[in-house]
């Protein structure tokens, strides 16, 4: 999970919210384009075009606006609270896609047990510290945290197909199109940039996953280096 730092909602959306305040239209279900499209794009830009839950690369055509606290529960608690920008993120997949993906936002659906106290939100400043990924793309809690385990289960972040996608991203980055993996200097260099946005404001897909894998890869390279040095001393 990549931390999301919320900024300001788009002007068109804020203007619409002000216009409908106190009316029967103060309801997320009433939001239409162009304001909804502006909102969607702003969320994508804010997140560096990564799914907030899975870190898959996304765009307008394969994602939707997700409410962390389900919008139906927001409306039940307080009229208009389903319009809170700080409760919105962009997630894979597009609403209405024929195929069902049993992980991420579709898996979470309307889950919100214990008012979400055991759910690690991508808005949590420490969210990246709760999970770890190995070279095979497997996810585990960094510490034996009930919240981390709950979040993995609620989002099915250990789903086989999602794990496979993460492993493909790792192999694609470390090995590229060849058989030789990244050298130590290139691995160190990659670790410095993998979690930064490119010139277009986009993060590398599964960047946190690849970062963890690069750290594993670097340790392996260092062990090989040490063995060679030890072998040279003996000869």
From TrEMBL:
This is TIGR02646 family protein. The lineage of its organism: Archaea, Methanobacteriati, Methanobacteriota, Stenosarchaea group, Methanomicrobia.
């Amino acid at each position: 999970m990549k931390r999301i730092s919320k900024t300001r909602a788009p002007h068109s959306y804020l203007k619409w919210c002000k216009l409908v305040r106190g009316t029967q239209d103060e309801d997320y279900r009433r939001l239409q384009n162009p304001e909804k499209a502006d909102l969607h794009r702003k969320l994508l830009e804010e997140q560096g075009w990564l799914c907030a839950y899975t870190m898959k690369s996304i765009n307008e055509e394969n994602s939707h606006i997700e409410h962390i606290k389900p919008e139906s529960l927001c409306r039940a608690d307080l009229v208009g609270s389903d319009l809170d920008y700080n409760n919105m993120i962009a997630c894979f997949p597009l609403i209405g896609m024929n195929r069902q993906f049993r992980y991420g936002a579709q898996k979470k659906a309307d889950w919100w047990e214990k008012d979400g106290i055991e759910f690690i939100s991508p808005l949590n400043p420490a969210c990246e510290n709760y999970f770890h990924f190995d070279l095979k793309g497997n996810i585990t809690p960094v510490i034996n945290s009930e919240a981390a385990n709950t979040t993995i289960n609620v989002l099915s972040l250990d789903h086989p197909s999602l794990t496979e996608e993460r492993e493909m991203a790792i192999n694609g980055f470390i090995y590229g199109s060849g058989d030789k993996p990244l050298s130590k200097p290139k691995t160190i260099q990659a670790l410095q940039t993998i979690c930064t946005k490119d010139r277009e404001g986009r993060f590398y897909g599964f960047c946190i996953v690849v970062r963890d894998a690069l750290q594993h890869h670097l340790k392996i390279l260092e062990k090989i280096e040490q063995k060679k040095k030890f072998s040279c001393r003996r000869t």
